[in-house]
TrEMBL record:
Its main location: cytoplasm. Gene3D superfamilies: 1.10.150.130, Intergrase catalytic core. This is Tyrosine recombinase XerC. The keyword Protease does not apply. Residues 22-107 form the Core-binding (CB) domain. Belongs to the 'phage' integrase family. XerC subfamily. Residues 1-23 are annotated as: Disordered. Forms a cyclic heterotetrameric complex composed of two molecules of XerC and two molecules of XerD. It comes from Achromobacter seleniivolatilans. The keyword Lipid metabolism does not apply. Residues 133-333 form the Tyr recombinase domain. Site-specific tyrosine recombinase, which acts by catalyzing the cutting and rejoining of the recombining DNA molecules. The XerC-XerD complex is essential to convert dimers of the bacterial chromosome into monomers to permit their segregation at cell division. It also contributes to the segregational stability of plasmids.
């Protein structure tokens, strides 16, 4: 369970709009007008900046400090006070961004008056690091409910066969969305086009080019291979007679015969998850997380999971061990007669 502090304003925190006495000083008002007229910021963004400036104005007032006399140390004290009063890391990061932007804009004006700032007092101040959240993964049962679709529909609709092949492959191989949509039927190279990723069906593998230009081969499970074969049989029904080389080579096609877009994959997966009655929104990366979590639960081989996911650093992969521990802890609570923690 996270120990992060709730992102709220407790009773003793500065109140942004508490009274007319807290009206913003002229420099702050002028900056907001600049953002509105010159930068075309939205009303929602301006309201947020105005709120953050009120916090700075009231904190400076309590410390009896003019705005142009606030130092880096004062800013750090203000942030520490807000954090102690319940402001979360993400909220404080937004606060510091507003304060930093104000001083950056105000500094040239003060230079013209002959009272320059020694430096931006917010420079170098960072919000406390937000705790890294656990990736969202489906249970094995939820994944089966998602992928075990009615066979009658799959037998007749090319788009349904395509979707089944895509989502079986995402879960089978832990691909990123960009890697999935970038796959070709096979390696293709011509004067106009060269494949970045491709299917090797007979070897039951896909070759992908991941982040940082790192290439890897990932195995494809038998269920995904079977789904891919059915889609390849139906693919000509969506393929146009002529197309651009990139579309002609694509493994997965959209309704108009072009390479499928990431947005279509997202929408189709969300729709299928809703049809399956899953209680959570499912996006393509959830299947990648589920792949990693389930393989790690079964094999305990962190290095293998790292290679299949294409993580450059094993610390990125290690977050899935926390998911695995949660799974084990839940099983312990439910099964051990002396656990004493059953809900």
């Amino acid at each position: 369970m996270s120990n992060a502090k709730p992102d709220v304003n407790p009773p003793d925190a500065p109140q942004a709009e508490s009274s007319s006495a807290s009206a913003l000083p002229d420099p702050m008002c002028a900056w907001l007008r600049h953002l509105e007229t010159n930068r075309r910021y939205s009303p929602h963004t301006l309201d947020g900046y105005r709120r953050e400036l009120h916090f700075l104005h009231e904190l400076a007032g309590r410390a009896r400090l003019p705005l142009d006399k606030i130092s880096n140390g004062h800013i750090r004290q203000f942030v520490a006070r807000l954090h102690a009063q319940g402001r979360g890391p993400r909220s404080l990061a937004r606060t510091l961004a507003a304060w930093r932007g104000f001083y950056q804009w105000w500094a040239p004006a003060l230079e013209l008056t002959g009272t320059p700032l020694a430096g931006n007092p917010v420079a170098g101040v960072r919000a406390p690091k937000a705790p890294r959240g656990l990736p969202k993964a489906l249970s094995v049962e939820q994944t089966q409910a998602l992928l075990d679709r009615p066979p009658a529909r799959l037998a007749t609709e090319p788009a349904a066969l395509r979707d089944q092949a895509m989502f079986e492959l995402l879960y089978s191989s832990g691909l990123r969305l960009s890697e999935l949509v970038g796959l070709d039927l096979r390696y293709t190279r011509s004067a106009d086009y060269e494949s970045r990723g491709w299917l090797k069906l007979e070897e039951a593998e896909v070759e992908v080019l991941g982040k940082g230009g790192k290439r890897r081969s990932v195995p494809v499970g038998q269920t995904a291979v079977a789904a891919l074969r059915k889609w390849l049989d139906a693919r000509p029904q969506l393929a146009p007679a002529t197309s651009q080389p990139e579309d002609a080579a694509a493994l997965f096609l959209g309704a108009r015969g072009r390479r499928i877009s990431p947005r279509v994959v997202q929408l189709q997966l969300a729709h299928i998850a809703q049809e399956a009655g899953l209680p959570t929104h499912v996006h393509p990366h959830v299947l990648r997380h589920s792949f990693a979590s389930h393989v790690l639960q079964s094999t305990q081989d962190l290095r293998a999971v790292q290679e299949m996911l294409g993580h450059a650093n094993i610390s990125t992969t290690q977050i899935y061990t926390r998911l695995d521990f949660q799974h084990l802890a839940k099983a312990y609570d439910q099964a051990h007669p002396r656990a004493g923690r059953k809900s």
